[in-house]
Amino acid sequence: MAFKQLDDGIAVSPQLSLADIGRAAREGYRSIISNRPDGEEAGQPKAAAIQAEAERNGLAFAHIPIVSGKAGDPDGDAMAQALATMPKPILAYCRSGARSTTLWALANADNAEPGDLIRLAADADYNLAALEPALQRRRKAHSMTYDVVIVGGGAAGIATAASILKRQPKVTIAIVDPATDHYYQPGWTMVGAGVFTAEQTRKAEADVMPKGVEWLRVAASGFDPDRNTVELEDGRTLTYRVLVAAPGLRLAWEKIEGLEQTLGRNGVTSNYRYDLAPYTYRLVQELKKGRALFSQPPMPIKCAGAPQKAMYLSCDIWREAGVLPGIDVEFHNAGAVLFGVAHYVPALMEYIEKYGIDLCLESNLVAVDGDRKVATFAQKKEGETVRIERGFDMLHVVPPQVSHDWVASSPLAAATGFIEVDEPTLRHKKYENVFALGDGAATSNAKTAAAARKQAPVVAVNVLAALDGKPPVADYDGYGSCPLTVERGKIVLAEFGYGGKLLPSFPRWFIDGSKPTRAAWYLKERLLPAIYWHGMLKGREPMAAPHMIGKAA
């Protein structure tokens, strides 16, 4: 019996015998789909018997029975779900293979031209010409086309959608993100120091979704900018006029050997996770003596100052409690400098010395043994890299951070895996109707919420220009802000753009970024959360209006 290939993932066949199942397994098939109802003719093996034999051979099985000539949209949806979720390659069967071919065509009608499906079926000796009207109707019904598709419902994606709709409410926008919760991540440093509670940094995603967008609660799985489409994990395809990619990045905990097995216990914590930041504060409160290690991985990472913020606030708590002299604090930074913008280093070094911190540069955390409470670092010494072990009582880890695999493998990615863009306009260098911002963009600015706050209006007005067939009209100077919490009540407010250029927002008499100030702490503790929730995510842009190209800064 011939197994006839329809596409790379599926073949079809007439009724299978039990012996055919073993042959299918030997030929490399991983799933069987039965599209034939039981009892159509005498001697027909029942689906249960086929299933048992399939499972005995290590194959997945699904039964989607269809009466001949009666296949409809619900059947096509069921087949689409099976094709999207079952291990491939798949072998589907019915009495002759025709029903299975029909269902395959219906399942793929939303992301393939009817003519192409009919041609592929004909290559397998199945004539689906009469099915073309149904395929056309199904393709139209399943078509999901928008003026703007935004991939990512984090700070950057939500702010961009809100900014677009503030300017042009009639633009059709889809936001693609499966998250149920939305987090104010800059607040997690404060949670780790007992200033905020974790609950203060979280809201339901539904509560921050801008009115007027269509929220698709599913993950994206691929970009096809040559076809102006985004692929979704559930098998659907979105078509856009303009794409805004704001997928964020991925915390690669697995790149540090042994870390995942011990996170949240054995004194190992991280303010880079909502559920772990409270554990940081607990560990800080409980530690009275011993060794506390703080790590920072190679760039790029979210908020390059956050690793040392956790350390300074912990030291301040220990100082207030009178136990700091009994605690050996080490900061292991994979980079060659304490902070990337030299202007702010002197103020930070004062706190390194004040707290008695052992600053270990070019020292990268590579392994953690939680049971032994030992951390292993790869350190550069005299031109060579050596591995050293350090015992600890508390270890605050910042994980390596990378682009999502499906982004890195897409046509939009730069060599780094992040999305390639022109840094001033945030437009893709090859695809003129694609923009990217936030942590997922391959820009050289600091990856901070403050950066996204400034980027979103620039992308919004450039998207509207693109919808009108015009070139970008606004540019971004690389602004990022890093409020370095050096002690409770004082912050060194680092504000800078591309190339480390200083971009202060306030006059020096109010906030001097070269020194710790109480005014900057008030900004961080009281004003910035409100600006985030009620300004940035609502399309309000105080101190964030887009700079128009050709106008004075």
TrEMBL record:
Residues 3-109 form the Beta-lactamase hydrolase-like protein phosphatase-like domain. GO terms for biological process: sulfide oxidation, using sulfide:quinone oxidoreductase. It comes from the Bacteria. Its cofactor is FAD. Coiled coil: none annotated. Signal peptide: none annotated. The keyword Transit peptide applies. GO terms for molecular function: FAD binding; hydrolase activity; quinone binding; sulfide:quinone oxidoreductase activity. Residues 146-264 form the FAD/NAD(P)-binding domain. Keywords: FAD, Flavoprotein, Oxidoreductase, Quinone, Transit peptide. NCBIfam families: TIGR01244 family sulfur transferase. This is TIGR01244 family phosphatase.
